[in-house]
Amino acid sequence: MRDPGARWDDVVSDAESTADAYEERGWNVLAAHPGDVNPVVDAARIDVLLPGSEFETALSAVEDAAIDGVDVYAGTAGGVAYRLVVATGEAAQVALCVPTYLRNDDLSSLRAAAEASGALTVRLRPLDDRDHAEIAIDDPAVFFDAPEA
Asked: Facing residues of 95 across strands?
């Protein structure tokens, strides 16, 4: 497992707080607690390992709701780029709050790949890799140029 850096607990707390805000509005919400986050540069993708029950919730949400919005909140500390990806399906009132972390050097190579392909994918998967759920970020600049928090 890669070291998520000193601010990781803060980013996970931000995901939980964001999820709580959606939940208070009556939405179905997942605040993810990734076990590991890995860039897959050649596929312009980030793989996010989730615990089994969280993965099942995410898979169900992505299958049952049209994800039509993605917001990204950003921060950096100690050579690590943190991004909180909030994917929403307005009609179904579903929100997935997925914290991620990447080393700054991985971020630049992933950006080049995402710009070349025209999208960045956040792939959520369980430990046994039996299935996956994907969040497509059709405008990669939203992820890479997110204002620093």
From this structure: 29, 88
